Amino acid sequence: MTLTRDAVLTALKDLRDPVGGDDIVSAGIVRALTVEDGAVRFVLEVAPDKAQAYGPVRDAAEAAVKALGATSVSAVMTAHSAPKPPPDLKGSGHSHPPKPLQGGPEKVPGVDRIIAIASGKGGVGKSTVSSNLACALAAEGRRVGLLDADVYGPSQPRMLGVTGRPASPDGKTILPMRNFGVTMMSIGLMTNEGQAVVWRGPMLMGALQQMLMQVQWGALDVLLVDLPPGTGDVQMTLAQKAQVDGAIVVSTPQDVALLDARKGIDMFNQMKVPILGLIENMSTHICSNCGHEEHIFGHGGVAAEAAKLGVPLLAEVPLHLDIRMASDGGAPIVVSKPDSPQATAFRDIARRMIAEGQA
Ligand SMILES: Nc1ncnc2c1ncn2[C@@H]1O[C@H](COP(=O)(O)OP(=O)(O)OP(=O)(O)O)[C@@H](O)[C@H]1O
To answer: Which keywords describe this protein according to UniProt (predicted)?
Structure first.
């Protein structure tokens, strides 16, 4: 049976944090967990003066993961000064969103360009595209940030193998996480795991503003924003408050998805955000056993739509088991199998964006 990230996290949850008393996953000390072909890697991030107390925990964690059938386990302990908890986002019971920014779109300090990754409909692979594109741009040497603003289903922590709560040295600014060369912040890291968060409009806007302006992004060539599906408050707030340089719209080839994608494109047009191009995801299914290709959701619909709108079709990404497995394992296909044809689809988009000065 394939070892999954969830199975590893469940096993690690049986271990108690000797300092805080919680289990080590809830305590937020398990970071950068990746599971790849049975090989498990993670970091235990602990306060320097408590490092000794965690020695047995690391040994127990390695043993617990080995017992699950992992082919290899690497648990590295790093000592960091105790982080202050990050400022509370609205989802954790805070009732006053920060004062909205006044005025029109602003530049995020240090960030050269912002590109929104959008879709009309959920589940079409927008987050998969965002994480792979971010890793592909980083592999080309670009300084890349990824802001996971998908409030309804933040998936970037899982896809990029990032766990734990981001630190805030001064209680105001938030330090982003980093993996595979990508600086990342997700609304999912600010709320408690498993906690159902009911976001209301003003909360959403406040949270998005905080993540744009209070996160120390550092100097970035490009910040990708993984938006929630549809055309709602988050999309509007992003375009009103930050200078968005372009949008990429992801769609599957079916008519229903395309219909929704069109609404998204209209919204960006109204907000004067240029459409950099469309991506057809789950374009062709390639059987992982025999390599046979078939068009489960149809094929070519997005190309036709792009031609109609006069915008580029950036890629046709196949539906392939490896793409899902890689994302579920916490290392996108661009990182875990960089030379596969599936990864090449994403790497080509990254190279094209760089060549055109978009990233
Ligand atoms: N090209 C692909 N081949 C195989 N699986 C894919 C592909 N693209 C996405 N998936 C899988 O489909 C599921 C949905 O993808 P993803 O979470 O990226 O969609 P989304 O559009 O961001 O969804 P939502 O907006 O609802 O969060 C995931 O399990 C992902 O691994």
So the answer is: ATP-binding, Hydrolase, Iron, Iron-sulfur, Metal-binding, Nucleotide-binding
In a domain, 235, yes or no: yes
- Which one of 4, 320, 327, 342 would you pick to mutate in the ligand 1 pocket, going by the greatest count of ligand atoms within 8 A of its CB? 327
The string of pLDDT tens digits covering residues 166-219 is 888 787 788 999 999 999 999 888 766 555 556 666 677 788 888 899 899 999
Domain boundary among the residues 79, 114, 135 is at 79
Distance CA 296, CA 329 (A): 25
Q: Which residues, 6 or more positions from 357, have their beta carbon under 8 angstroms from its beta carbon?
A: none
Instruction: Please report, for the domain that includes residue 36, its CATH number.
Output: 3.30.300.130
CB under 6 Å to ligand 1: residues?
Answer: 119, 122-128, 150, 153, 155, 229, 281-282, 317, 319-320, 323-324, 327
- In single-letter form, the type of residue at position 159 comes to M
127 annotated among ligand-binding-site residues: yes
Please write the tens of the pLDDT for every residue from 339-355.
Answer: 999 999 999 999 999 99
Note whether 109 and 199 are same-domain residues. Answer: yes
Q: Residue 254 belongs to what domain range?
A: 98-355
Where do we find the tokens 């235990």?
44
Atom of ligand 1 nearest to the CA of 229: 25
Contact 165/86 with Cβ under 8 angstroms? yes
CA of 320 to the centre of ligand 1 (A): 11
